[in-house]
Design a protein that fits this description.
about 35% helix; 12 helices; binds FE3-S4 cluster; five-stranded mixed barrel; binds S-adenosyl-L-homocysteine; binds iron/sulfur cluster
Amino acid sequence: MNKTYKIMTFGCQMNENDSEKLSGLLKNMGYTPTEDTASAGVVILNTCSVRENADVRVFGNLGTFKPMKKKNPEMVLAVCGCMMQQPEIVKKIEEKYPQVDLVFGTHNIHKFPELLGNFLQNGERVFDIWEDSDEIVEGLPTDRKYPFKSFVTIMNGCNNFCTYCIVPYTRGREVSRLPENIVAEVKALVADGCLEVTLLGQNVNSYGNDLKSGYHFADLLRELNQVEGLERIRFMTSHPKDLTDEVIEAIAECDKVCPAIHLAIQSGSSRVLKKMNRRYTKEIIVDLVTKIRNRIPEAAITTDIIVGFPGETEEDFQETLEVVRKCRFDSAFSFIYSIRTGTPAATMPDQIPDDVKHDRLNRLLEALREISSGINAGYDGKIVKVLAEEPSKNNEERLAGRTESGKLVNFEGDAASIGKIVDVKITKAGSFSLTGVQL
Ligand code: SAH
Ligand code: SF4
Ligand code: F3S
């Protein structure tokens, strides 16, 4: 039997963390990873549905497995992740993609060994998707990509129902893990050599609301800050409506909590924000960012922005540019609005033409680039603490790592420093990354 596997991940960090768990489960079953997809015994596509191009990529990939499976008939092809929580997509796979053997969703990845076992035993296609789940399965093995840093999912799901977004439909309602389970996982990670954890949730600032014990995100940050041997705590994403003074205070006071806040604003027009169901205004964003910068001057604040939401006028877009300039975001992920069937915005009138969306995206990117260059220039000549992660992508002779504030640094350094926090002197500041030498 061919006990090799390959997992392809299409989505966000949460999706990546799920893939690490699937990988852990497979290793426990005696499988070994391979990079050669065509020869693998098990292939899993862990899908994402957040924008249309994610869907398109998955279907494109699925097509290639038809000839691949002819050559390698033993291969088991499994598909999971957010796309599988949408019944019309599962139906399409059922009818048009017979090469897919096994389909499961976001709520039952812990069942994967059992589902695979069923398929291997009787050869019948397996479709097992759970609509929602209020249970968090603890203790799944995780096969981490890096020994020295790790994702830690602290909550599943989302209750916000932003009108453009598919995630609440694919990930269900918010369920927080118990603090003791998170702390125990982080301690075990540290014992295993981890220096840095990134806490994951669609909206980490509402962590704990469902536990009804009065324990919130700020309490979690403070408790994790006490874990001996842990050096850095990161987290994402923050929703402006839930980022409380208590959380800002915890970030400011806890030495291990990195001064890096990913605060997704989506738009700078109060009119558009209302239609997006974001429940804050332009003024609230600017006040919040001002408050963070006053309390944590070294903080890097990054964001997500969508252009071309239905009904967005040039004036609305100008307001987004204005907010971006006022907040001076360190960097941003900018997206063109993508229609997601089943969400309220998909059927809103005044969908924006593609050329207008692209034009706005380009103007936004230019504004963001200018701001990033300005901020990054402030790093020139400074000495920063960098967690060296791997050889640099563009130049194998160099190392790449991140500052506490989350800036990418490519630097001349000793390969033996990988996995360690080292001092780096910045010699050049670009708009997207910094360059330096290890001291
Ligand atoms: N929970 C996170 C975001 C998860 S999705 C938060 O609220 O911050 C990541 C990003 O994808 C979102 O912040 C948003 O900017 C973008 N996004 C979500 N749905 C989208 C859509 N239909 N079209 C374009 N971008 C979208
Ligand atoms: Fe989507 Fe909004 Fe939830 Fe983020 S907060 S996952 S954008 S619905
Ligand atoms: Fe995509 Fe699901 Fe993450 S839709 S962005 S993989 S939560």
